TrEMBL record:
PANTHER family: SERPENTINE RECEPTOR CLASS EPSILON-1-RELATED (PTHR23128:SF139), SERPENTINE RECEPTOR, CLASS E (EPSILON)-RELATED (PTHR23128). Belongs to the nematode receptor-like protein sre family. It is a multi-pass membrane protein. Keywords: Membrane, Transmembrane, Transmembrane helix. This is Uncharacterized protein. GO terms for cellular component: membrane. Its main location: membrane. It is found in: Membrane. The lineage of its organism: Eukaryota, Metazoa, Ecdysozoa, Nematoda, Chromadorea. GO terms for biological process: sensory perception of chemical stimulus. The chain crosses the membrane at residues 12-32, 44-65, 85-109, 129-151, 157-180, 212-233, 245-268. It comes from the Eukaryota. Signal peptide: none annotated. The keyword Ribonucleoprotein does not apply.
Length: 326
């Protein structure tokens, strides 16, 4: 016995309102993450790619938010929704970033590959063309995938399989990169006289970044597998219409959970980065109530450090003012 159309509609609307609230929260979280990325001590190319991808997520959020307003009857459009230009554009934005999400780890791998290849000069020669070229290539490929998904040019099951293959390729590429970087870093630490401080710093940074990639790839691979299966089953002609609606809602909720947990993984994977992030006041205020007990010592040390810096600065200006008054 299937649920009534009214009951089904009410359940779906409840999911949509939860999704709207989650989207509004994510708008703030991603703005904070973009600020943290811009002010972080990472290499310019890595920061550029990070800000580019994080900013691109707003295309997904804006597209999904408009669709949520339409699906919950907050905004009403006349005529056939399949022919409404606004809904077509917003759906295209979602599909485009879905394709981008499958390639995030691979993009970071490419940047780190060049960081290891040019390790001797990477700190001094920025090579901005690398990050710009990578972002342009990702944009073109993701827009192409978005158009293919939007107009159903290729069956969605094949696109889902392709996304999973990209994830597998990212994992294999990571394993190779991690092994190469670890061996070079160990060699540099054993023969410190033969390697400059900047070279050892770049190798150390790459080693920590690959740690982040490892965690992100693992979580991303499992999430993409689950979401891919949900998407394939939701498009199956053998599934009852109300089940298909539930699966679409589950897919959208999984996308929100995926994006939030990806931020947390990036924030909490490496101890040095955690301490850096915890020193930022707005991050401290938001993250401490959630993870304060898990990282109590690090929160305490970052708070002491902030107070120490503030006290030293205040003392300096008091001495300077006293000299002028004298």
């Amino acid at each position: 016995m299937y649920p009534s159309e009214f009951a089904c509609g009410e359940i779906i609307k409840s999911f949509i309102f939860i999704e709207i609230i989650a989207i509004l929260i994510q708008i703030v979280l991603y703005a904070i993450t973009i600020y943290v990325t811009i002010t972080s001590p990472f290499h310019y190319n890595l920061r550029f790619i990070g800000v580019f991808i994080l900013s691109g997520y707003y295309t997904f959020l804006s597209g999904r938010l408009v669709n949520c307003f339409y699906e919950s009857d907050i905004i009403k459009f006349s005529g056939d929704p399949n022919e409404n230009i606004i809904l077509i554009i917003t759906s295209g934005l979602q599909y485009t970033f879905m394709a981008c999400a499958c390639s995030i780890s691979f993009v970071v791998f490419v940047e780190r590959f060049y960081a290891i290849k040019y390790v001797e000069t990477y700190e001094f020669k920025t090579r901005k063309y690398l990050s710009i070229g990578i972002c342009l290539e990702v944009t073109c490929s993701c827009i192409s995938c978005g158009i293919i998904l939007l107009f159903d040019i290729i069956p969605i099951i094949f696109m889902a399989i392709f996304g999973l293959l990209v994830g597998c390729a990212s994992f294999i590429a990571y394993c190779i990169l991690f092994t190469i970087n670890r061996k070079r870093f160990e060699l540099a630490m054993r023969n410190s006289d033969k390697y400059s401080l900047s070279v050892r710093f770049q190798l150390n940074e790459s080693f920590k970044i690959t740690t982040l990639i490892r965690n992100v790839i693992f979580f991303s691979g499992i999430s993409n597998l689950i979401m891919g299966l949900i998407l394939v089953f939701s498009e199956s002609s053998t599934i009852q219409p109300h089940i298909s609606l539930y699966l679409h809602s589950a897919f959208n909720i999984c996308a929100i959970i995926y994006s939030i947990f990806t931020l947390l993984i990036l924030l909490l994977s490496v101890k040095q980065y955690r301490r850096y992030f915890f020193q930022i006041r707005i991050v401290y205020a938001i993250v401490y109530p959630i993870f304060g007990r898990c990282y109590e010592s690090e929160f305490r040390s970052s708070k002491i450090q902030r107070h120490s810096i503030a006290d030293d600065t205040d003392t300096y200006f008091k001495i300077l003012a006293a000299q002028w008054n004298y």
